Amino acid sequence: MQTEAALADGVVLHDDTHHAAWEAQLKAAGAGQDDPVKRVEFIRWQVLRAGTPLRLMAQHHATGPIPLATAHAASGLHLPLGVIAASQDAVAQGDVDTLATQAEQLEAARQAQETAIATSTSC
C-alpha cells in the first residue's frame, strides 16, 4: 500500500484520489480512522523515518544547511505528534501526570522549529 500511495503522489490526480490512496496506506498499516492514537503514532514514525537520513546527511559539512534545517523541521513535527498520541491516551485514562509532562515536548518542538528557521535563513 505504501508503494501505491507513493505512486499516487507522483502523478496529477484529483485530491480525493490522493486522499483515498493515503487512507488505504494508513488502514493497511493498522492505523485506520477508528484508532486515532495508532494513526498519529504511525504518521509520527513516518516523519522519524524520513528525518533520520536527513540528520545523517546534515553531519557532513558539504551538504550545506538545508538538510540540517529540514532535519530540525522533522524533529519539530514528530515531537508534537508524540504529544498528540500521549495526550489522547492520557485523557482517556485520566492520567494528569502524563499530560503535565507534554509541555516539555512542545517546548522542544518549538525549539526545533526555531532552529530550522534560523538554519535555513543562514544560507
Structural summary, described in words:
Helix 4 (65-93) packs antiparallel against helix 5. The chain has helices at residues 2-9, 15-28, 36-58, 65-93, 96-121. With 123 residues, it is mainly α. The protein starts with a helix and ends with a helix. 81% of the residues lie in helices and 0% in strands. It is flat, with a radius of gyration of 17 Å. It is built from five helices and no strands.
What is the compact description of this entry?
This protein has 123 residues and is mainly alpha-helical. It has five helices and no strands.
Oligomer: single chain
Low-confidence stretches: none
Biggest beta sheet summary: none
Beta-strand fraction estimate = under 5%
Total count of helical runs of at least 4 residues: 5
Overall average pLDDT: 84
Helix/strand structural class: mainly alpha
Order of helices and strands: HHHHH
Output the radius of gyration. 17 Å
Straight-line distance between termini: 38 Å
Task: Summarize the topology.
Layout: H1 2-9, H2 15-28, H3 36-58, H4 65-93, H5 96-121
Helix pairs in contact: 1-2, 3-4, 4-5
Features:
123 residues; mainly alpha; flat
